[in-house]
Every structure is written in structure tokens, then in C-alpha cells.
UniProtKB/TrEMBL annotation:
Belongs to the aspartate-semialdehyde dehydrogenase family. This is Aspartate-semialdehyde dehydrogenase. Keywords: NADP, Oxidoreductase. GO terms for molecular function: aspartate-semialdehyde dehydrogenase activity; NAD binding; NADP binding; protein dimerization activity. It comes from Clostridium beijerinckii.
Amino acid sequence: MNKKLKVGIIGATGMVGQRFACLLENHPWFEVTVLAASKNSAGITYEKAVENRWKMNIALPEKYKNMIVKDAFEVEEISNMVDFVFCAISLDKEHTKLLEEDYAKYETPVISNNSANRNVEDVPVLIPEINGDHARIIESQKKRLGTKRGFIAVKPNCSIQSYVPPINALIEYEPQTILACTYQAISGAGKTFKECPEILDNVIPFIGGEEEKSENEPLKIWGQIENGKVVNAKNPIITTQCIRVPVTNGHLAAVYVSFKKKPSKDKIIELWENFKAPEVVLNLPSAPKKFLKYFTEENRPQTNLDRDYENGMGICMGRLREDKIFDYKFVCLSHNTLRGAAGGGVLSAEYLTACGYLTSK
């Protein structure tokens, strides 16, 4: 790109907002011009706003330290300063949905990390390697919103990133039923060990709202566009359990799946190893060169060893074997704040830029 697009980070002081800031520090296409958060952080420097709560394992980038944090609800002012925004603000769903729509109506596209708009029928839920074509629903959304360039696109829940891509690679065999138990890092709750003492020497068998999202969002990703809306796929039937475990980053999943047409084990591994994303995705700055990786070792993937595969943007699988109830079972892993959150958002923005949906004002 000859000229970088100007971007804002809404919710810049939280864990995902911090991750966005780090990923965008030297991005070749995007330049952060606005950091915004709640009124409590507005009007002070970013360094002051995240003092004692910087959660990344790298130092706060110098370029952000003296930027004055904006009030996220100053939509018109921020819209005049950016070409589009990433949204990772922590509000209830109703207020998040309204805020994101306000930005869109001010002709400022929103790439959202939030769940508030995921169920809206003309809002694409994107994993670019899988359903990038859903971006065309944006034209229907703009008609509904009455906008020329403003829209909302979201990335899916972090818990599905580990098992939807490997299942998608096998979609020709028509998966019918899926059981997925996810073992999710504390960063999925925006916390560190210091902020989450209850997780030490413990496992918490409940994450509010996570199982509903994990069971429903894949069906939208695998859905079809009909009459100006995304119609969810009817199959597979998915059931999940989502469990919080004492690790910093990385969501591991134990997956069981049955197919209408059962493939061989060798065929599954072949499809995983040879999966290739569309060319437009492969050429994006944040795209993994090899999206899916299968480990032959019996004790892999491991969260600590493998979550950073392909800079945290790839998916790892292992332990594929036949099952007594389902056809197959396997283990898979994704990095929840990279592929599952900020990194997935940045990749979606790159994809939408390459396809002409994100442009300079």
C-alpha cells in the first residue's frame, strides 16, 4: 500500500486492546492514530492509563506512551481522525452493539472483537481462510444502516478457533455431530495470574455464555448468503463444554466428530497437511504461511510449546484416532489472543482492505 490507513483502537486499555496496539505498532498497512477507552481513562496519556495493568510480555511501545486516550463515546470526533476502528471495548452487549453501529453510521467501519453483533444476520463473522466470501454481505448491511462506507465485521469467539478450521478442511465428508471440550486460558477472561488467584491449583468448569457461542457461531461461519442475510448451516450438530484452566494463553480442545461419509485417517491427515488458504489470504501481512499443522507425536500439541505456531496465527492438531462412539477424536490448539482475538481482527482487516472494503476517507 502506498499510504497507510489510519486506525483507532476502541477499548485500547484492556488486554485485547493492548494486543491490538502491539500487533499494529509497525504494521505495513495500518497506522494507529487514536487510542480510546472508557471515560475513566479518557484525557490522560496511554502510559498513565495502563500503568500497573500492562498485560503484554513486551514493553509498552514508545510510540503510544504519550498519546492521549480518547473517550470511546466521542464517536464523531474519533471518526474524523480515522479510516476505520478495531473495537475491543468491555461493555454489556446492548451498549456495545449500539456503539459499534454508531461508528458505522458515522461512515467508520468497525472490525470487532466483541460478540454483540455476531448474531446480526447481515454482519459477517470472518475467518478469512474459511469464509472470506461472506464479506459480500457487507453491501446488504450498508443498505440497512444507510451508509456508504460504514459497516461492522466481526471475528468469531476465541473458543472455536481451534476446532472449526480442522473440521472445515474435512467439510466434503459432511460432518454430522461434533463434541468439543475446550480448555481455555485465563487471558480469555482478560486476566493474568495475578488478577486471577482463584485459578491457581484449580480448574473452573464454567465460562459464562461460552458454550452457546461455541455451539452456534460455527454454523454461521459455515452458512450461506441468501436474500441479504447469512443463513446458518443446519449441520453439524455441535455440543460443547468450556472449562477455564491455569494457563496464560492458548485454548486447547478435545474434539469428537462423526461424518456422513467417513474418511480414512490417512485422508484426514492429508487434507489437514495440504490445506491451502485462498491466494488473497496467503498474501496478507499477518496470514500464516501454513494454517494447519498435524503433530505425529502422541504428546502434542501442548499449550505452552505450540500456541505460538506461525506467530500464534496457525492451528495445531494431534492425537487423531478412531473412537468407539464417534468416528474420530483428536486434540487441537489455537492462541486465543492472537488468532482468537486481536490477530484474527487484524487479519480480517487486512482481508477487507485487500478486497476493497476498507479504504482511506
